[in-house]
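Working notes for the structural subgroup meeting. M.R. asked for a predicted model of this chain before we commit to crystallization trials. I am recording the input and output together here so anyone reviewing the notebook later can reproduce the run.

Input as submitted:
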Amino acid sequence: MRSNVTPKTIRRLIAADGYLELDLPEKAALELSKIDHAGPLEGPRQLLMGLARKRAGEPENAILHLEQAARIMPKPARRFAWSELASCYRCAGSDDMADLAESLGGDREFELRIALPSAELKITSTNSSANIV
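Returned structure, recorded in C-alpha cell form:
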C-alpha cells in the first residue's frame, strides 16, 4: 500500500517543529491543524500537537493528542508521550493516571529522532523537560 504523504504535510510538520523551538506553541498548533490527513506521520503530528497545547498552557487539551501519539507511535516515542502526559494528568486532577503515565514513560533520559523525508525532528527528554531540536 502506497503512502500519500504530501510535501505540504511534511512542510507543516517541520514548520510546527520550528514554531515549538521558537516557543510559539499557538502558531505550531495552527500549522498542525491545517493538516487534513497525515497518513503514517499521524503519530508525529499528534505528538507535536500535544506538545504545542501543553506549552500553550492547555494541559487538559494536550491529553487527547498525547494519548493518541502514545497509542500509535513506536516504543521510544510512546515512552516520551507518556512522560509528557504525566504532568497533564496532574493538572487535570488525575493523580492515578499521572502515576501510571510516569511508570510507562520511565525515568531515564532518552533521545527520540523522527525522520521525515526532508528533515529530521530530534526530541530529547529528561525527567522534567523536553526539548525539540
